[in-house]
Amino acid sequence: MRLVLLYDEFMCPPENLEGKSIYIVDPNLQQDYEVSPKVLEYRHFLAKEVGAEIHQGDTFQILETIHKINPISEIITKSTFRTEYKQLFEKLQQTYQLELLPDYFLSTENPILPAKRFFQYWNKIVKQLKY
Amino acid sequence: MQPVIDVSSFTRNQALEYLNNFNPALYAKTRNYLNGHISYLSALIKHGIVQNREVYDLIRNKFSFAESEKFFQELAWRDFWRSYAHQHPQSLWQDVEDYKTGFQASDYAQELPEDIQQSQTPTQVINIFLNQLRNTGYLHNHARMYLAAYIVHFRKVKWQAGARWFMYYLLDGDLASNNFSWQWVASTFAQKPYFFNLENVQKYCSQSISIIPEENKEIDGSYEEISARLFPNL
Predict the structure, then answer these.
(1) CB-CB neighbors (< 8 A) of A125 in chain B
(2) Half-sphere exposure of residue A108, counting CA atoms within 13 Å on the CB side?
(3) What is the spatial distance between Cα B77 and Cα B81, in angstroms, rounded to a whole number?
(4) What is the pLDDT of residues B25-77, one digit of tens each?
(5) Is the ipTM of this complex over 0.85?
(6) B95 has which bridge partners?
(7) Is residue B170 a contact partner of residue B181, using CB atoms and an 8 Å limit?
(8) What number of C-beta contacts closer than 8 Å exist between A and B?
(9) Which of A52, B22, B219, B226 has its CA 20 to 30 A from that of A125?
């Protein structure tokens, strides 16, 4: 089974992507800050909109349980800068075939650039955006 | 005060339909006003329901680059913060630079005062924005800047306390955009602090909210007067 692992930055799989969508509310991945019940409810609404299966608990354990019932051939999700997710993805990679889609940016070529002020960044990407 | 669109139930299809009637040139002229022509896409972009690039492509098909540039810049702010977060994830909760307010980080309080948490500050417009944030999970960007500046500069609270509090309530709370924007206001990720006065709030908000000057004395004064009051060491 091909699994699309949704999380709060990736609540809608790309249109042409086939696979079963799953959204896990995992308190281990919610470090440094908490979110309100209204935010959780909103994410629940978004997950339902795309017909995702919704779970709560430790992501790795939940995937393990699913894998025992219906073997997971591949997990697809999106990359991020967030450390706890990077660590989770590294851990998943040890057990599953994991495909990380690129993070979403406006510019399609080299969007991660050394710039400490906005206009340094803008002046670098605007060449790609002008038409 | 409620946002024009209920962000909590704004779907991808509704957003794409809204974008069909979105005018980036009008956005450029009015975006700073609470009732300005804005996109309401932030929660959908944060959650990957609509992507920056997709929005760019839709606008590009209908408008010239000159008409759209300001809107694209605002989309690019998100990329800028995100790009920085990819390279410096440790800076998400740490000061990127020193405060440029004449104060040290240790001069700022760690926790949000109770009156801010209860929307009972001495300043009426701040209480309105605080209530809107708590009740709807959404705030216009200008209102976010007012709140952040109020908390950090008028009340001398560390930006981290405010950023954490915003992340709790905001439906579109994106860690990079939120925390680095707080640092931008605080001056720990900018060349100078951002602050405001009552006149500025009246200019951009009086079409949407009723402002009572006597209940906003804390933020009343010229920029020179307020700067001298907030940053006496500069």
Answers:
(1) 76, 79
(2) 8
(3) 6
(4) 999 999 999 999 999 999 999 999 999 999 999 999 999 999 999 999 999 99
(5) yes
(6) none
(7) no
(8) 116
(9) B22
